[in-house]
Amino acid sequence: LPENGYIDELGEIIGQIVGGEFKAPKAKLLKIADSLKKKKVEAIVLGCTELPLVFPKNYSLPVLNTLEILAKALLTRYYKGEI
Question: Nearest 5°: phi and psi at 29?
Answer without folding.
Answer: -65, -40
